[in-house]
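In the laboratory, one determines a bound structure by crystallizing the protein with its ligand and collecting diffraction data. In a computational setting the workflow is compressed into a single prediction: the sequence and the ligand go in, and a structural description comes out. We illustrate the idea with adenosine monophosphate.
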Amino acid sequence: MASIPDPKRQFKEFQQSFFKALVSATAASNAIPVNDVGYLRSLDRQFAKDLDTCGSRLLKTSNQLLQHCSADTGVEASTYEDVDDVNERYGGVVDVVDGLLEKADVCLDEMLGRTGKGNDQIKQQAAEVAQVSKGKLEYKLLHASNIVRPQMKFKDAVDNSNSTPFIRKIKHKPHAQVPLEYGVTPDMVEGIEGGKLTHSLPHPYEYEIQHIKYPDFMFQAKERIMYEPFDTTTAAWVDDDASLEKMMDELAKAHEIAIDLEHHNYRSYQGFTCLMQISTREHDFIVDTLQLRDRLWQLNEYFADPNVVKVLHGADSDIIWLQRDFGLYIVNLFDTYFASQLLEFPQKSLAYLLRTYCNVEADKKYQLADWRIRPLPEEMLKYARADTHYLLYIYDCVRNELIERSAANDNLLRAALQRSAGVAAQKHEKEVYDLETGEGPNGWKGLLRKWQHPMTTQQMAVFKALHQWRDVTAREQDESVRFVLPNHMLFSLVERMPSDSAGVMGCCNPCPPLVRMNAQSIGILIQKTRMDAVLPSSAQSSAATQQQPIKTETLTEKKPATSITSIPIKKIKVAKMEVDPSAFDLSKVDHLRREHAEMVGKAVSSLFGEAMDDAIDDALNESTRALVDEIRSNLRLTLPFEGLKFKQKVKEEPLSSPSAATAQAEQSSSNQQQPAELLYVAPEKRETKKRKAVEASSSTTTTTQQEHAVQEEQDAIVLKDTMRKTKKKKGSKKKKSKTPPQE
Ligand code: AMP
Ligand code: MN
Ligand code: ZN
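The predicted complex, in structure-token form:
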């Protein structure tokens, strides 16, 4: 045999020789007529011997592969004993390898700055934004790739847990009328009781906001002060202690300051502030809040000072972001939005005020830009600066008008300040996810209202399960729920209820990375949820299940088996018992995932050992390595280990109806791969990624039809007598839901 090139030094050559060997092996085995093997064996003893040798080598290789897979997933897998055993259980290995390749693909995309299939969707969003605004926002500014996640560098660890309250960041309280501990009761300090979220600590400046004595100068009409020309001045970029110090020196001289924030919430669960713009009468400052996140608490010296007016426009979110990210609070807020409201302007936007008072046409196209980008492009800096540059002048204008239009018994300026104070006194709370009630801004109840079509019991259960999976995943990965799984894709999954990874990915086009990485788990989750939804014994909480209590009950009773339902239900139940429930234990999955991430972090390859390690170190430059490290620490691998887990045999049971047979077929095919996967497939017929994608996008007929068929069979189990109705509805639904509601 010719020597095999060293993969470490001559990877290309190694790859070539590998492919060559693979092609000739395939051609050779292809030349053997499958149906005649038995005959040929009896004809030629040497051939029979070779066949056996080859067979046992293949078995050995299969077992090695199985051991690699089980080592990678942390699941113990018993060895293959014979060909039948391989046939039956090889699917698990295929799934693990598929999953790993899929993940490697995602990692490479991320590393190379390709968002892959995600691009289409983002481009679409970009197009929409561009349409709204006059100018065209460059795509790369709307959604930058190759950004090292800023939250990795935050000194305060991101806490997305659902069970702990927000812990306020303030340690020092300048301009205090009451101490920091004011209003804090012992039960609040204990924080969590019985695992339930209790109240977070009170707003530390609530008292000061309520008891504020506004400085007299605020109520005297005076000549408005013109802003500095925009084009001949620049903003100071504040990103270190020295520049922060300099800015604070300027703030110390000011009686009025204008403030605005820019925020990012697509690649983060709770979101974070990326930029703080501050303008005094003389200067504009742009603070890099990603750099100075843990230093900005010092600004309470000015922000909480009742003798300094803080002018913002539409401050609701800013108030929350300031306290959540920096522990900053505003005492003496003047929100120009309320001035617009009290003066009954036709529009309440900042753009309107800019047009009216400054003759400036605001271009809001950067509002949705990716503010994590560094260094910030000139045009974005300009945009950000414009948000506060004119604001103190606008304040002068609306303040004078409010004073002018006030009556003796109707002080409009006081009213604006009062409404502003209400906003400043708002307290940040973490979002709580309640699976039971579905309440909350990101609860399933709100989303359910967007779904205009009837849902079956199973679909309702799947909807809730997927919705919860999305929230849990977003919290764990610190991503937004719309990054994890956009609403219209969630609905698409609910509609088709696929049970395998191909089906899951077929519902999501373009498929989001976290769906790709968890496609198999999602399939299993859907399948499990569907089973649970039709199980009489499980205490299902969904209202939809409760609509069928009588029918479900009768299934367990010894009623004469006039219904076709009793047997398949029993069957499903038997099958369910054999499923290891820990396969769905998210914390266990997470644990395995972390373990694996560590292994990947060490760059030990099953194939190359540690050979690749120094190759990587040598080849990568500083920034690429930082990116690699970031991806490694950040991208956790979920392994589809479930496939290896259960060697499940559904017991033979007499079946009395075709629907029962289908139920069983689906049941058994779900945990074991069909042997079809092992058959040799001609190159032109092989499923490649491209073909897969084309198939998925052009038509998912096979899966969809199968899924619908299975759905109907399952429906028959529970909803036997309403089946005709269901079918009708489904027919009409299918048409409408071609365009499920978008985000
Ligand atoms: P602004 O107050 O206009 O400077 O906006 C502050 C931040 O709010 C922006 O950086 C965005 O993150 C967010 N934001 C503003 N307007 C929108 C919008 N229409 N949709 C989504 N996010 C927005
Ligand atoms: Mn704002
Ligand atoms: Zn802004």
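The chain has a mean pLDDT of 76. Keep in mind that any predicted model is a hypothesis to be tested, not a measurement.
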